[in-house]
Amino acid sequence: MFDNLSEKLDKALHVLKGHGQITEINVAETLKEVRRALLDADVNFKIAKEFTNKVKEKALGQDVLTSLQPGQLMVKLVKDELTELMGGDAEGIDLSGTPSVILMSGLQGSGKTTFSGKLANYLLAKKNKKPLLVACDVYRPAAIDQLHVVGEQIGVEVFSDRGNNDPVAISKAGIAHAKANGFNVVIIDTAGRLAVDEQMMNEIANIHKAIQPQETLFVVDSMTGQDAVNTAKAFNDVLNFDGVILTKLDGDTRGGAAISIKSVVNKPIKFIGTGEKMDAIDVFYPSRMAERILGMGDVVSLVERAQEQFDEEEARKIQKKIAKNKFGFDDFLSQIQQIKKMGSLKDLMGMIPGAGKALKGLDIDDDAFKHIEAIIHSMTPDERSTPAKLNASRKKRIAKGSGTSIQEINQLLKQFDQMSKMMKMMQGGGGKKMMQMMGA
Ligand code: GDP
C-alpha cells in the first residue's frame, strides 16, 4: 500500500538527517522534495502546495524544541499534517435508524457490490447487526447475480426483483421487507456507469430523495488518483453524501486519492477496501494511515487484528500440550492458520514499524507458508505428533510427497525445535530466562 509515496517521503525527510538545527534553507530543501513526492503520488497541485506551506510555517516556529532532532521533528510535522489532511479523527457510520438505510453510490467497477458485501459481513460479525442487501442495478442482470453470490458467501439475505426496472420502487420494497422481517440495517447497492453521466446522477438522486438514507456512501477506486477526486466532487454536488469508501488500496502505490479526497469534498473517508475477499475491509483511521505512509508502522491495527483472530479455546489447548510436552506439527499448522486469518502477509509486515523499508524488494507473497503446509501435510499423524521419528528415509519420502527438498524439511524441523523450546521456557516460569536469552 502506498509504497512509492512512502519511499519518496522517506528520501525527502532524510535530507534533514545530520543537520544540527532547522534552518530556513534545509527546511525549504526538504519541503521541495516532500512536495515533489506528493505530486508524484497524484495529489492535486494546490493541496500539495498548501501542505508544504503549513509544514514550513510550523517547522520554522519550532526552534523551542531543541531537544528533538530536526529529522524527527520534520517527520512528526509531516505526519500531523497528513493526518489532518486525511480527516483528523476516524468517523463511524450512523446505525441509529430502525432499520438504518445505507445507500451505496459510485461508478461501475469501483467496488460497490464487493464493498456492500464486506460492509454487511462486518456489521454482522462485528456489530451484531442483522443486515439485508438490496440489489437495485436494473440494467445489468449480472450485477444482481453478483450480489446474490456475495450474500450467499457471507450468509446475508439479498432482496431483488428481477422483473422490475424501477430502482426507487425496488429500494422502497427492500426497506419494507427489512421492516417486516426484523432486519436492522439495509444496504442498497445501486447501478453505476463507466463515467459520470446525467441519467445515472438523476437516478441515484431520485433514490436518495425517495428513501432518505441515514448514510449515503460514495465508493471509489483509490488507484484512479485525481479522477477519483473529480468523480467524488461530481457525486457530492448531487448527493451531498456522508462518507467516502476507498477501495483497492492494496493495489495503490501512490495514495493521491486517499490524501486529497477529504479536503476536496470535505467528507471523511470511512472505510477502506484492501482486497477482493469479504474480510478485506478496515475502518479508516487517518493518523494510523499517516504513520503507515511514513514507515512508522501501525502497531495498533496489528494488535487489533491479532486480538480479533485470537482463538482462546485453541490457545488453551496448545498451552496444555506444551505443558505435557506434546506440542506437535498439527499444532504448528493450526498456528499458521491463525496467522493467515489475520490478513495478507505483506499487509501485516507493513504494520510493523520500519519493516516496510527493511523488507523492501523482498517478494513476500501469501504462498510463504505453502511449503511448510505441504511438508506437514505429507507427514503421517504419527510423525506430526512425534517429530523425533523423522529419520533420513522418512524425510526423503516427505520431500518427495510435498515437492520440497530435504534441506527445507531440516530447516522446518530446526524452526519447530526452536519454537518448542521457546514455548517451554515461557511456560515454566521461564519468562526471565527467555529475556536473558534475548539479551535483555
Ligand atoms: P461495482 O461495479 O462497483 O459493483 O464493482 P465490483 O464490486 O464488481 O468490483 C469490481 C472489481 O474490483 C471486482 O473484480 C472486485 O473483486 C474488485 N475489487 C473490489 N474491491 C477491491 C479491493 O479492495 N481490492 C481489490 N484488489 N479488488 C477489489
Automatic annotation (TrEMBL):
InterPro entries: AAA+_ATPase (IPR003593), P-loop_NTPase (IPR027417), Signal_recog_part_SRP54_M_sf (IPR036891), Signal_recog_particl_SRP54_hlx (IPR013822), Signal_recog_particle_SRP54_M (IPR004125), SRP (IPR004780), SRP54 (IPR022941), SRP54_GTPase_dom (IPR000897). It is an enzyme of class 3 (hydrolase). Pfam families: SRP54, SRP54_N, SRP_SPB. Residues 268-281 form the SRP54-type proteins GTP-binding domain. Its main location: cytoplasm. It catalyses: GTP + H2O = GDP + phosphate + H(+). The keyword Nucleotide-binding applies. Composed of three domains: the N-terminal N domain, which is responsible for interactions with the ribosome, the central G domain, which binds GTP, and the C-terminal M domain, which binds the RNA and the signal sequence of the RNC. Part of the signal recognition particle protein translocation system, which is composed of SRP and FtsY. Involved in targeting and insertion of nascent membrane proteins into the cytoplasmic membrane. Binds to the hydrophobic signal sequence of the ribosome-nascent chain (RNC) as it emerges from the ribosomes. The SRP-RNC complex is then targeted to the cytoplasmic membrane where it interacts with the SRP receptor FtsY. This is Signal recognition particle protein. It comes from Arenibacter arenosicollis.
